[in-house]
């Protein structure tokens, strides 16, 4: 067993298992999710579908796409089903070297009809998918619509107009293909089914890139009739008459900077999800009720702080604690502590991660348990012993109330110093049928205000045992004062004015798993789950249709400028008055280039041990620090005495950056082997000759009237055109260091 100290980021939840003969649940289990889609492997002998049948189905669905593959190129993966869906899935994939590139594709087909549930494939040549893309979004939508027709009941699917309402990345590498995404929701009686969809991605060259179907109702599914539904007007009145809002803290995480911010928000009371369209009952997190939802009273798990379990523990003591906590009957399995490592989490707490393994007759399973070094308290644990400890004996099942009491008792026993920060929640409960435990979430409370995004999760088995524990305690210095919030009546009126309804079918978490109720769901400013910034009164989320209308005018670079603007690579305060012929500064140019080459992630680019300052004038507090350091790390910049952010960028300097970005600097430094025939060649500084020659020969930077204008300032228009060209060259190199 190894023991070492490691400061950095590792996975906070780990589960792994292997088995022989018997099906084994294999999953990495997110502790803060109440319902988990556990994948159950199926023994090969239990699958009756042949490889040839799978290949035939794929060639029928894609008659022209995979002609470069022989049947021998396809490989069969393992069969599986899910804990909540017993239909067997079959996996088929290929991995082949084509035109100098490794091409991978995977398919998942389910049931006796081998319906395609999931696939992903990227062709070898994506040149036509880069900007400017070969096809438009409208053309891509037609391709997706035609592909949708290959699925059962395709005519009942409806395109979700807001499916592109949220952008996951601030920007994406321009060397990546244009990708159009479409989401279709199945309907019954013309009403969408809320928990199902089919997503289809089409590349800019017209190739279908991926597809995922979460659409399955089963033959036994039943649906409420539309005949007796209440009018939308009446339901809206009912909602507005009973509308209530509550003040909460919300933790907002910006992955582009790796920063967390606490916001003070108003939101509708959490227990209100909609109104039953037939009965008028309120849909809550715990089912339908005749009582209108009301804001709950904050009740802390402990009125006073409790002493920590220990005042610091060693790595050896952490191992001893884990061994005692995880012990099992030796006749059932053998526990092995594989490793203990030490790290710092986001809250700056030092954590011991104890990695362990259970070995038993037909296989093994394992994971990790996390312990706070300063307090000796368990902050993360998931019990995998059920994998091999299950018996035929029927244990007496405890009630929800008893389970809640035990959950609080376990917290006071194993993590007492955290308890007084958290409160009970009427909404934070569900029952996990597969794992057979009661699942509770306890929200954090600060200044008597509940916090969204910081909670404790606890799973209690029906036998009363602790099955899961996850503490996500975050530290912030500044919690906005409630005194800065707009009045509750003003917030309520804003929600009321923006309130509309969306009729949908929804399946409840009750005994009848096959029935779909007809529900009017509330939307606020077009979003079902929306929040209001309590200090500004503005909506935090807004569904806006994608608008790629050109808004920047320019005689030679309009297309490129507008593309960079819509891709969030170029930031312009007022496009109408933007002067694209203005000289761009070095700082602004570097930001544009780095955004065009990367996903726009400038968070914890380096660990604390690696953190450095490449330029004396660009420290960690400078707004361009992360961008500059990433550029240095990628070789685009070389550390010098100063990085003159506000100085204009010259064409010869841009040539150097581009050639460095393409990792061609070694060749460029051999300036003596280049002969430049520009009329103004004498204006090129000797140390830039190789860079200029290569940038011009690669088509990145053009000469005008046989003049390169090496010392002229680069304009936004020139930068936009050349950045697109750079993206194409990066794609040709296929170098993933740009991400």
Give the SSE layout:
Elements: E1 2-5, E2 15-19, E3 25-26, E4 39-42, H1 51-61, E5 74-76, E6 79-82, E7 85-98, E8 101-110, E9 115-121, H2 137-148, E10 157-159, E11 179-188, E12 191-192, E13 197-203, E14 208-214, E15 222-223, H3 232-241, E16 245-254, E17 259-268, E18 274-276, E19 282-284, E20 287-289, H4 315-326, E21 334-344, E22 350-360, E23 363-372, E24 378-382, H5 386-389, H6 400-414, H7 416-419, E25 429-432, E26 437-446, E27 449-461, E28 466-471, H8 488-498, E29 499-507, E30 515-524, E31 532-533, H9 558-566, H10 586-597, H11 625-633, H12 651-661, H13 665-668, H14 689-697, H15 716-733
Parallel strand pairs: 1-21, 15-30, 16-27
Antiparallel strand pairs: 2-23, 3-4, 4-6, 5-7, 6-7, 7-8, 8-9, 9-14, 10-11, 11-12, 11-13, 13-14, 16-17, 17-31, 18-19, 18-30, 19-20, 21-22, 22-23, 23-24, 24-28, 25-26, 26-27, 27-28, 29-30
What labels would you give this structure?
739 residues, alpha+beta, 13-stranded mixed sheet, 12-stranded antiparallel sheet, disordered N terminus, YpeB_PepSY1-2, signal, SLH domain-containing protein, SLH_dom
